[in-house]
Amino acid sequence: TNAKKSLILANSLAKTTTNPQLKQRYSSCAESYDAAVSDIENAQKDLAIGDFNGVNIVTSGAMTEIDDCQDKFVQPPNVTSLLLKNCKTLKDICNIILVIS
């Protein structure tokens, strides 16, 4: 999924960047995406059993995790990482899920 790819990307960026601030931000994003992946997996399980309230709750949790990652990059140094684009895409998908559920 997009979330799993973002988790892999965040981990990779955290390992390869030399900037200590960015390393911390990417590591934090990796933790957020790890939780978001778990939330999305739970949403899939809830959907399979028809628990739309559960889908809504865990999808909201995933969005919070994604927001947490995005918030890390409000302050300089600025980055143009694919990770931030993935954040927006995943949030858009979560918004669609929330509307449907």
TrEMBL record:
Keywords: Disulfide bond, Signal. Residues 1-100 form the Pectinesterase inhibitor domain. The keyword Oxidoreductase does not apply. Pfam families: PMEI (PF04043). Gene3D superfamilies: Invertase/pectin methylesterase inhibitor family protein. SUPFAM superfamilies: Plant invertase/pectin methylesterase inhibitor. CDD domains: PMEI. GO terms for molecular function: pectinesterase inhibitor activity. Belongs to the PMEI family. This is Pectinesterase inhibitor domain-containing protein.
